[in-house]
Amino acid sequence: MKLPFLKIREVSELIKKKEVSPVELTQAILERIEEVDRRLNSFITVLPDRAINCAKEAEKNILYGNYLGTLHGVPIGLKDIFCMKGVRTTCGSKILDNFISPYDATVTQKLKNAGAVIVGKNNMDEFAMGSSTENSYYGPARNPWDLERVPGGSSGGSAASVAASLCFASMGTDTGGSIRQPAALCGVVGLKPTYGRVSRFGMIAFASSLDQGGPITKTVEDTALMLDVIAGKDSRDSTSVDSAVPDYSNCLREGIKGIKIGVPKEYFIKGIDNEVEEAVKRAITMVEDLGCTVEEISLPHTKHAVSAYYLLAPSEASSNLARYDGVKYGFRVSDSDNLMEMYFKTRAAGFGREVKRRIMIGTYALSSGYYDAYYLKAQRVRTLIKDDFDEAFKKVDVIMTPTSPEPAFKIGEKTDDPLKMYLSDIFTIPCNLAGLPGISIPCGFTSGGLPIGLQILGKPFDEETLLRVAYYYEQHTEWKDKRPSI
Amino acid sequence: MKISKNTVRHVAALARLEFKEDELEKFTEQLANILEHVEELNELDTSGVEPTFHVLDVSTSFREDVVKPWLSSDEALENAPQRDEGFFAVPKVIED
Fold it and tell me: Which residues contact A309 (CB under 8 A, 6 or more apart)?
């Protein structure tokens, strides 16, 4: 089995036992990126020299007995939304095309401290706004299972690169589903941790009360290994929570007897692709056969989540993106007569259409005369959605749903109608509004060979139960051993 | 909900964005569609419901007012499209 096709756990054992050198491994990965990524466009920036140097450091340290842990010497990617010192960090946008970050995000720093080898910055929808990675200034990323189709978004580059074995894991971000939906469409595992579990310092902000960074990997165990490294309170992110970090990778094998699973009827509505619905229902039946109890629950305000989200997120974004004005960094239009003209022209030229659309919606929703009717209303609806989950979690431990209403769609299929694109997120959005952890794992394929994802939602800071259930299901199926032929 | 082009122009000005006429047409239409969709929130009775500004039950976190090392002035200016000594340089400011 060629090295890049292994999982983190496997490759890590080989490195620890000194049977494989991090340098050899990184070279194999870089060669594969060189060969494959021209067809996938899953990376905006590849870092061959940095990666090799880092791998050489790792090799030296490991040979001298200074082994840092499971990620030491393992090549990974970072969505181009995570600042990395001395490296171009574009956020998929023209307005940051030339931005060289002067500092590392906390997540970047933690992964470096764990000895991981960062091979590149992954392609993404501009400013994390999108569900297909078609909104990237650098062109769309493609789904390795079918190059005519999207990998999902906004962490599409991350999901595509992991699925195609161009890295062993990639850090993505999720505001309305941007880790989980691409993971589902690319047949890999994607976890959005509880809001506050992972530091957002250095993670370029889209919607600050919804954003959360998380890993995309080939297996549930690999996700747990990543979470072990990135979770934890950070004094530089005042929204990160001072809650003890459990040993996630060691709790996986505790089994699932007696765990209560809730299946919300509002997530099994008309309009879901038939094969998606069948695959998810089969997975739920299987988990029941394996010893869980399954009961139908109701999350009555589910259908209002998309509307609430498409008021709240753009509102927060309109504020967060005000800083891109051509003054301190990034793109600036030349030959402006005065400062105001520079602001207008720079932002008009630097931002893509979807970003402008969302800034406009947000600015409108927050403006005088409309704030109460739109923003405040949406925040109250958010409370109702969160309360639905609080009620449900009194009776069940986890909730199972489809991740996406359909498998990967064709590139260009939804770009004409923004609303159509927004509805790709109907099942993932509620979890962000409530701040809960959510994971997507593979649960089958369509007759056309496209991956289908099962979403599992958990109680706040209960990633352990989420991972245990996901792991147990995964180990009883063969989905983790399937990979695209690219 | 019909949103007028003038309202869209006003919002664009607030957001420091400018559009060409044909872009403005398309945007007005798209914005109207999206706003029409989100209007459905008005079906819900939210009287007495507190807004959720923050999902976590945390209050403002404080720290000691002590200077901590961070970027130097030079590092902060590294990406400046235009700089003048220790300053970010910008085109002149015109008062209306």
Answer: A176, A210, A378, A425, A429, A432, A433
